[in-house]
Write a structure and sequence with these properties.
By secondary structure, the chain is α/β, with parallel strands linked by helices. It has 9 helices and 9 strands. α5 crosses α6 and α6 packs parallel to α7.
Length: 235
Amino acid sequence: MNEQITCKNVALGYEDGIVTEGLNFTVSKGDYLCILGENGSGKSTLIKALLGLRPQLSGDITWGSSSKKIGYLPQQTPVQRDFPASVREIVQSGCLSKTGFRPFYSKEEKERAMRCMKRLNIEDLAGRCYRELSGGQQQRVLLARALCATEEMLLLDEPVTGLDPRAQADLYELIAKLNKEGITIIMVSHDVAALSYASHILHIAKKQLFFGKKDDYLNSRTGKAFLETEASENE
């Protein structure tokens, strides 16, 4: 197996205490991992640890050949949705980690941005202002930006939040297509619909509740309880 991330006995938290502990899971090349958990369960803290923004309190997070090459699609704030830049400028900003101290984008980086836009069928939006786009179009733009950073692995934080059902389905299908093309997906989600696309599930709370293949999760006590809770809340 081409393991890209391995977490062993990881505890995460802050100065005032542990948020979650006992995390043991692996992410291999081509996986589609869906991370589940209630608010405050440690999902955001785990994201920060995987992005290298916050060290774990204990345990080990080791990286394989991916060398921490993660394209990140964060949750958007209302202010960010109103950002007055062109689609081309936002997608190209995914190459910033490659520019170093250069105050401009190279020809190769500009071409890479255009390839990513074409891949997500938004090349016709390149000259449009980001703030004028629909929610679904904005998420495609941010996904293209993440692809500019790397095609090894994408970390997506609640990517369909605020989208209408049609836009949600379109984005899920697009992410699944990227996964089938060999890109590892790690998605944080509250949405039951996300489970149908995943290959593996990590369900966390104060301690890890489950890690394994999707079908095993759906047949587990933890998985059944989660689905029952979501179904009752949506009635």
